Amino acid sequence: MPSISSFRSDHKNARKRTDRSSQLIRESLQKYGAARSIVIDEENRVLAGNGTIEGAKQAGIKNVRIIETDGDEIIAVKRTGLSEEDKVGLALADNRTSDLSEWDQEMLHQLSEEHDLSPWFEEDEINDLLSALSDEDIDPATTDPVESTRLADRFGITPFSVLNAREGWWQERKRQWLALGIQSEVGREGNLLGMSETVLEPDEKKRKLLEMMREHGTMVANIQMLPGYYEKKNAGMTDQQICDEYIESGSKQAGTSIFDPVLAELAYRWFCPTGGIILDPFAGGSVRGIVACKTDRKYVGCELRAEQVEANQEQAASICNDADLQPVWHNSDSRKIDKVCAELEADMIFSCPPYADLEVYSDDPDDLSTLPYEQFRDSYFDIIKKTCSRLKNNSFACFVVGEVRDKKGNYYNFIGDTVQAFQAAGLHFYNEAILVTPVGTLPIRAGRIFASTRKLGKTHQNVLVFVKGDGKKAANRCGECDFGQVDSAEEFGEVVD
């Protein structure tokens, strides 16, 4: 005969017992004995009757009789030996304990995201239940405009799973950040290593195209650094056509991508305590370090290229010169981050890793962007594991990533690999958001690419959040979001038009 201790509570039970309901269940079982069935699955998970099982344990009832059924019959429990008063008392206790229980609103919200609850709740009923969530808990998905404004005042923007970098607030905030003098592209363009042109680009035809691009005003170390290079090559365009199209578009921006300072600000304010240490294994440009400094966080990044570290330090010296928490960039291979930062205990991990070989940052053989994907993936997993070893327990990690295509135009599943890497490092996958990015020059090239390949123009990135330890404890460590006014002159300085 199975033991009652072998039953497992339902981890998705959306009904929670109050102290009064638990007491009443226990007292009823002690006075009247067991009088109703419960439902378990093949693995002894209690699907219905969790309160009864807990009450029975407290009442000292140990025996269990299991009747297997596929649901085509009603199982009736025939009680004997009850007086009329006992029968009334048992029935009232059975009904009353249900009244005294409460809905677990967090679990109900989770279930509403994972399952269709319409067979059991009307839309207004579920909204009413979820709207009763406290400020510390999750807000309902159907928030009215007034509530959305209130959330935006507290958190900068409404903390939903779609972040729109095209909207006016975001663009204005970004303009204010850049007005500080942030130039994340500095250190990433041109021949800053002083190497010969033949080392940087052995192909003579491509060297001539580079000269043409530089005359146009675009400084790139190689043609592959132009936006969308591989997508266009997969669509059958030649290097000459790619360069001609880029010049015709009128763009003169650097070929490498520039990190969005507003996204960095949101991530820091949401997932890192004020005064905390942010560890970045793939530092790149200066944006993430400067934003950390200006939001009262300590930034520590690893960057392979010495010229990039020098450029970042020069910008930080001019923009963060009076700050207590100066950003630090180590000129080091990220694969050594556990040794370089051996004494560091980070409060958050935040980074935007190289998207395999989508952007080739240098010809250094230690640069991950030069590796074939399988080798890149192995190193990527290793770096994430070592970085997470420097993260405090009950803390968040956030990576901004996007899918990458191989030379045949198929996705590598880079996003999935990122999730696997963090899980292999012992963290839990906690949040995912879609960052809707500006369209830029996509309309110029999307038609031709889609017509020939049926590949959709990509205008988003994925923001992946992980937690080491317990999510609620990590949130408590972060404290209140310290968002100031968008147009705060004290925070951003004078806005330059």
Q: Could you describe the 3D structure shown?
A:
The chain is of the alpha/beta class. It is 41% helix and 12% strand. The chain has helices at residues 19-32, 50-59, 84-100, 105-114, 123-131, 145-155, 168-178, 197-200, 204-216, 229-234, 239-248, 261-271, 287-294, 306-319, 337-340, 373-388, 414-424, 442-453, 471-478, 489-492; strands at 15-16, 39-40, 46-48, 102-103, 162-164, 277-280, 298-303, 328-331, 346-351, 391-401, 428-436, 460-468. The strands form 3 sheets. Strands 5-11-12-10-9-6-7-8 form an 8-stranded mixed β-sheet, sandwiched between helices. Strands 1-4 form a two-stranded antiparallel sheet. Helix 14 links the parallel strand 7 (298-303) and strand 8. Helix 1 packs antiparallel against helix 3 and helix 9 (204-216) runs parallel beside helix 11 (239-248). The longest helix is centred in the N-terminal third of the chain and has 17 residues, at 84-100. The radius of gyration is 29 Å and the shape is elongated.
